[in-house]
Amino acid sequence: MIDSHCHLADETFASDLDAVVARAKAAGLERVLVVLEAGNEKEAVQARRVSALWPEARFTIGVHPHQAHQFGADPEGAAAVVREQLAATPGARAIGEIGLDYHYDFSPREVQQSVFRAQIRLARELDRPVVIHTREADDDTLALLRGDGGGALRGVLHCFTGNDALADAGLALGLFVSLAGIVTFPKAAALRETARRVPLDRLLVETDSPFLAPVPYRGKRNEPAYVARVVEALADVHGVPPAHLAERTAANFHTLFRP
């Protein structure tokens, strides 16, 4: 199994990172993709701890829409920071998470869009996949992916909670779709139905830990070991054994991120 999106460099894991990594390995995880906020030195330091404990771990680096306002006067500066940190991080494989978030609007929407565009262009230049965050912004997210992505962008819609239309549009763009612990929630029947339409060769699994712990761990801090519950839920949705879904999603991870 592979957890394709987690925040192990978050301070939440600082005190027991070694135990969290040990539990993930014991649960059968081959590796994880750890999300880093571009320019965040504390996360960069903890990322080095992750690498020491788990050499197979890989990283994705980007300016999240929540932090886009930091580059309001210079959207290209966001891409420059990401470029520099990618070059300095041997395990980095992708740009993200990047995108648009109109739910919180921590950054002005036009600034979010400009920073997103700059990072999309960087991803195309460097031939790196993107890890996409979209919340209540699907139309604009898709428009930028189609326009600035130009049909030449590899990537994944992370922590997917959208509808059939978003899933179909993402798949048409060649993107992968990643499901997190929400798919295990009792009230997520509609999401499970949408997940059913995602072909097995375009599916990824993640925890987005420390957030969104799956059933039966809801209310607790999430961690990579719990991705097994996401695998089990999606295996049930697709009518395949969990071992098969774990193997398939791991292969998809390798196809996209070339670890």
Characterise the protein shown here:
By secondary structure, this protein is α/β, with parallel strands linked by helices. The chain has one domain (2-257): TIM Barrel (Alpha-Beta Barrel), CATH 3.20.20. 42% of the residues lie in helices and 17% in strands. The chain has an 8-stranded parallel sheet. Helix 3 (75-88) packs across helix 4, helix 4 packs parallel to helix 5 (138-147) and helix 8 (227-238) crosses helix 9. The model has no long low-confidence stretch (mean pLDDT 97).
Q: Could you name the ranges where pLDDT drops below 50 across 5 or more consecutive residues?
A: none
Biggest sheet record: 8 strands, parallel
Q: How many extended strands?
A: 8
CATH class: Alpha Beta
* Number of separate structural domains: 1
Q: Could you say what the CATH topology is called?
A: TIM Barrel
Query: How many helices does DSSP assign?
Result: 9
Average pLDDT rating: 97
In one word, what is the shape?
A: globular
Which percent range fits the helix content? 40-55%
CATH fourth-tier homologous superfamily: Metal-dependent hydrolases
Percentage of residues in DSSP E strands: 15-25%
By CATH, the architecture is named Alpha-Beta Barrel
Give the key terms:
single chain, 259 residues, alpha/beta, TIM Barrel, eight-stranded parallel β-sheet, 9 helices, 17% strand
Summarize the structure.
This protein has helices at 17-26, 41-53, 75-88, 109-126, 138-147, 164-172, 189-196, 227-238, 242-257; strands spanning 2-6, 31-37, 58-62, 92-101, 130-135, 155-157, 176-179, 203-205. The protein is α/β, with parallel strands linked by helices and 259 residues long. Helix 1 links the parallel strand 1 (2-6) and strand 2.
